[in-house]
Amino acid sequence: MAALLGFEKSTTSEAITVSRREIIITEQINKFFDAPTNLPSVSTFTLGPQKQGLRVGSGVIAGFNLRLETFRNLRYRGNVSYSELSRDGTMTTLQTAHPPSTFPSLRTGAEYLRSLNDGRQVFVDGERVADVTKHPAFREAARSVARLYDIAAAPEMRDRMTFPSPKTGGPVLRAFQIPRNHVDLRARRLFSETWAEATFGLMGRSPDHVASFFTGYAAVPNVFAVGGQNLADNVVAFYEFIRDNHLYLSYAIVPPQIDRSKPAHKQSDPTLYAGVVKERDGGIVISGAQQVATGGALSDWIHLSCIHQLQPGDENYANCLAIPVNAPGVKLIPRRPFALRADNSFDYPLSSRFDESDNYVVFDNVFVP
């Protein structure tokens, strides 16, 4: 495994405790991220009156190798420096650069903004938006979401905003933490409170909202197993995927404003509600529309479901699925964006920055594997 870890430490080669995390210099590499691995040996290791570098690379100097004995709670982003411990008057700084396959980095605001330029089909006033990060209807709201990711990725916020992924050991957003006790619930509350304060509570569909739905689903897979164990396995696998990749989901769960006196299957057109129109060996095909996907134009995936009561005969509309926003056939038509009129933040301090924008989502023969 091509791994690179950089450490700066004080003048001793003894074990150093950093917030109950131990770094132990031993003769062999016995454990890394709680699992055996074939990390290369220490290539440089120097001690002196000043902080010196310890790097894992190729080759061996003075016969030193590295073992990380207690690492499960070490939740750092690659190349982020922490100064946490003063030992004998000397500050110890810890730096890490984790292999992406083992320790996925937290998503930054810049990475989030880049990801939005993915060919998604968003239409405003009849025209397709070329880039939501530059269009005045979405630009500042996208930057507000980006700031939320930067808050979560900030080193000093790591304990409050993240927890270790049970699958990878890497830091993931607390929005995906399945609470097991009061302490977990409080930690989740502090996470959401921090994001809510950053937007003055005006972005009610920030990335932690629908994330909490899938966290709830994954907490009770037995509910889905009633329809088959494969359904339970699917929902848990998808939860782990969005958790470990720090994704932003929105949802479309309300039928269009049509004849509400009739159930879905009795509408004049069977594709007014979003529903299954075809089944294939590898999945289903969805056509129709659903709303009110708040934040849909700014999200990575859309969760399609239905909050309205369904009736016998509506089986084709009883769906609970997720699809990438840029999937072929997915089109988003937002309500008239408030941000279009908010031409400066002085006169429009809120609508210029926090207009999530509700979206009417059209599924035009969208294949769902």
Describe this structure in words.
The chain has 369 residues and is α+β, with helices and mostly antiparallel strands. It folds into 2 domains: 6-96, no CATH class; 109-368, Beta Barrel (Butyryl-CoA Dehydrogenase, subunit A, domain 2), CATH 2.40.110.10. Helices cover 21% and strands 25% of the residues. It has helices at residues 109-115, 139-153, 158-161, 182-198, 208-219, 221-225, 229-244, and strands spanning 6-9, 16-18, 21-26, 42-45, 52-56, 65-67, 80-87, 90-96, 121-124, 127-128, 162-164, 171-173, 249-252, 275-280, 283-290, 301-304, 321-324, 330-334, 359-368. The strands form 5 sheets. It has a 6-stranded mixed beta sheet, with no helix packed on it. A 5-stranded antiparallel beta sheet has the order 4-5-1-8-7, with no helix packed on it. A hairpin with a 6-residue loop joins β11 (162-164) and β12. It starts with 5 loop residues before the first strand and ends with a strand.
Question: Can you name the CATH architecture of the largest domain?
Answer: Beta Barrel
So what's the overall shape?
globular
Q: What is the number of helical segments per DSSP (H or I, 4+ residues)?
A: 7
CATH class of the largest domain: Mainly Beta
Succession of helices and strands: EEEEEEEEHEEHHEEHHHHEEEEEEE
Predict the CATH topology of the largest domain: Butyryl-CoA Dehydrogenase, subunit A, domain 2
Number of separate structural domains: 2
* Average of per-residue pLDDT values: 77
Strand order of the largest sheet: 10-9-18-19-15-14
Based on CA atoms alone, the radius of gyration comes out at 24 Å
Task: Report strand %.
Answer: 25-35%
